[in-house]
Design brief:
Shape: elongated
CATH topology of the largest domain: Transferase(Phosphotransferase), domain 1
Number of domains: 7
Structural class: alpha+beta
Helix content: 25-40%
Low-confidence stretches: 161-173, 300-366, 373-385
Number of strands: 33
Radius of gyration: 50 Å
Largest sheet: 6 strands, antiparallel
CATH class of the largest domain: Mainly Alpha
Strand order of the largest sheet: 1-2-3-4-6-5
Mean pLDDT: 82
């Protein structure tokens, strides 16, 4: 390959700055787009491809397709063209290094790191697959890591171009270590071929090595035709079985057994990562990469494009080179073992003419010939078309009518229940064989009896495989949806479906299955300080059960308030788990002021207190000597239920009521009611009082005597 010199121009626009790396098919240069003033990478293809006009035409078509692919996980192709003997692509200039360099620096990756790399690779690759493109050369050398830790896939379509240029020479195109079996044996290349190569990359990320080896690249390539890729866990510890299964599916020898494309592989990878709770991971940038070495080379375009940038393609080790190998020779078609050579028996010599000398003999011969002709005709009819009947059309008939129709046509009817989007239940949806076909009379004809549209089967806690089988029996397919929490369905089993179970759907409908993640995690709420009833209601709303309620005195917490919860608030539980509460047993002294002594005592006892004593406060005046004016402890105080005794305070003095003009009996009742005595005698109860001492409104000590003066 004739190397371009620093300062050379491609199409008077792209100025060569420095050679970066040499690959198997091209040379990569750091250069400057003089029109846009930015640093780019120029991939200049090997001269051996230039002279081929078919290759140049395919190059333009493939380059145009590559340029239309835009995704953060793909290296962008900005431009393509030819300049003299140079055919080139202008690409995004990537800072950082290659995945090959990262593996060389750090060795095998843990599952979460490998998953992070492959998620980015498969995301970019799925974009290409949706556009109808197949990469054909997935390998660590074509997986780049930018300076901002973004993983990008490069070199779409180049192997396809090389393959087209050598298609007539029975050669294998690609890197031996990562080839799919189809690329080795020459069968059709599909997105599943990229899936195989990506599976090999995942194996290498986990173990630090590719699964196969050989004395020559061809021997290495042929290994995958006869051997399965081993489980990564057989080469290195710490690889979960789900990752082993993921690699096994991606690298199945038969393309039909693999993920069909990158999107399906990516979905499976995300499912496994979620199942294993793999943490997120930022892919590191290689420290000792070709990009770093290239950036150290002085450039005379710094003022134009800013600080030196780096491209990550480097000369790759021998095993990573994209190579052309001799393909397997074509296999001659085999002759079936039961095949025989056709031959033709020699015809017997013609009989000599028979003399017909007798009229009688002639008549006899004519009769015999007529009889033989009739027999042959009848036999020919029977053994030919006469044995066959035409299967009648029974579409839309009721089952019984369809059975009778088939019987009348000379066939033996049998029925088979089938699903139909159009034919009502218990009507014929057709026959097998189809109507109008010929069949020997007496043979069985299957009448297809409609049971209507299929309904979505009930999950009933099935695992996914069992549900897939149940759905398949109803012509339905299954796809995985987001896992959901379920308190009723065991983790890993089907919790719900879309459409819902029992819903009638068209034949072939795809049912989305949501697998249970088990009970939803619930954090113990903050219920401390709430009344017990409110706390129990809050816990019940979350599906938590109060297993026990203990009581404890707390001088700062009113009675019935929650003091503590176990487990502690914020602890993660699941629906149905139990919690224990500690509730304040503190008693609050009720306010019984203004009540009479008996009512106050009853009120206190109902609240859990006992009246241990009664005292009078001579400094307090009340309306009655039995009216409570206070308690000790006072109303509102918090009391330990173990020491819940109350002393009632009654007034020591009362206001003397006005009894003048009353009879002695009336006055005695009134005065005694407020706690005062009288000097009047019972025999004077009917006499009227004319004067009293102390006077009405005066204050007197409880139990003191009011002197009454009686009128005449």
């Amino acid at each position: 390959m004739a190397q371009l010199a620093v300062g050379d121009l491609l199409e008077d626009r792209y100025r060569i700055d420095h050679p970066i790396a040499r690959g198997g098919m091209s040379m990569v240069y750091r250069c400057v787009d003089l029109r846009l003033g930015r640093a780019v990478a120029a991939k200049v293809l090997d001269e051996k491809y230039i002279a081929d006009p078919v290759f140049r035409q395919r190059f333009r078509r493939e380059a145009r397709a590559m340029a239309q692919l835009t995704h953060p996980n793909l290296v962008n192709v900005y431009d393509f063209g030819s300049d003299g003997d140079h055919l080139f692509l202008i690409m995004e200039l990537i800072t950082g290094g290659t995945l090959r360099e990262l593996l060389a620096e750090r060795g095998p990756m843990p599952p979460h790191a490998a998953a992070a790399v492959m998620r980015a690779v498969l995301t970019g690759l799925s974009t290409a697959h949706r556009a109808g493109l197949v990469h054909r050369d997935i390998k660590p050398d074509n997986i780049l890591i930018s300076g901002d830790h973004r993983v990008k896939l490069a070199d779409f379509g180049l192997v396809r171009l090389a393959s087209a240029a050598t298609a007539s020479s029975n050669q294998i195109i690609g890197t031996a270590a990562y080839l799919s079996p189809e690329q080795v044996d020459g069968t059709d290349i599909t997105p599943a071929s990229d899936v195989y190569s990506a599976g090999i990359v995942l194996f290498e990320l986990l173990t630090g090595a590719v699964p196969f080896s050989g004395d020559t690249p061809l021997a290495h390539a042929y290994k995958r035709l006869t051997a399965d890729v081993p489980a990564p866990s057989s080469r290195i510890g710490g690889v979960p079985s789900l990752i082993d299964a993921l690699v096994a599916t991606a690298t199945a020898r038969d393309p039909q057994d693999r993920f069909s494309d990158a999107a399906e592989f990516l979905a499976a990878l995300d499912d496994v990562a979620g199942e294993l709770s793999l943490p997120d991971f930022s892919v590191p940038v290689p420290r000792n990469s070709a990009a770093h070495r290239a950036a150290a080379v002085p450039t005379d375009i710094t003022d134009l494009v800013g600080p030196p940038t780096m491209v990550t393609e480097i000369p790759v080790p021998q095993i990573a080179q994209t190579r052309i190998h001799e393909a397997l020779p074509p296999v001659p078609a085999r002759i079936p073992e039961d095949a025989v050579e056709e031959f033709e028996e020699p015809r017997p010599p013609a009989d000599k003419p028979v003399s017909n000398r007798s009229r009688v003999g002639l008549v006899v011969w004519l009769i015999v010939i007529a009889m033989l002709t009739t027999a042959v005709a009848v036999g020919g009819w029977w053994f030919g078309s006469g044995r066959y009947g035409e299967i009648p059309q029974v579409l839309g008939m009721d089952r019984a009518v369809a059975v009778a129709t088939v019987e009348e046509a000379g066939f033996t009817p049998v029925t088979r229940i089938v699903y139909s989007d159009d034919v009502p239940t218990d009507q014929s949806a057709g026959t097998d064989p189809a109507d109008g076909e010929k069949l020997v009379r007496g043979r069985e004809v299957t009448i297809l009896v409609s049971q209507g549209m299929p309904t979505v089967p009930s999950a009933e806690g099935m695992d996914v495989l069992a549900y897939q089988a149940a759905a398949s029996e109803r012509t339905l397919t299954v796809t995985s949806g987001e896992p959901v929490y379920s308190a009723e369905v065991e983790e890993g089993r089907v919790a719900r479906t879309e459409p819902a179970a029992g819903e009638a759907v068209p034949i072939g409908t795809t049912v989305t299955v949501h697998v249970s993640r088990g009970p939803e995690p619930i954090q113990v709420p903050a219920v401390i300080g709430l009344p017990l009833a409110d706390a129990e209601a809050r816990l019940a709303e979350l599906g938590l059960t109060v297993a026990a309620v203990d009581r404890r005195y707390d001088e700062d917490s009113p009675a019935g308030r929650v003091l503590a919860v176990s487990p502690d608030p914020g602890t993660t539980l699941t629906r149905g788990n139990e919690v224990s509460l500690v509730v304040s047993s503190t008693l609050t002294v009720p306010d019984v002021s203004g009540m009479d002594e008996a009512t106050a005592t009853a009120t206190l006892e109902a609240a859990g207190f006992s009246v241990s004593d009664t005292r009078r406060d001579n400094g307090t005046t009340g309306a009655s000597g039995s009216t409570v004016v206070g308690t000790s402890p006072a109303a509102g105080e918090l009391i330990d239920p173990e020491d819940a005794e109350i002393t009632l305070t009654l007034p020591g003095r009362v206001t003397v009521p006005d009894v003048v003009g009353m009879t002695v009996g009336q006055a005695r009742g009134l005065l005694e009611g407020v706690g005062l005595d009288t000097n009047a005698r019972e025999r004077d109860d009917t006499r009227v009082i004319s004067r009293q001492r102390p006077s009405a409104g005066d204050v007197a000590r409880v139990d003191s005597t009011v002197r009454l003066t009686l009128g005449d």
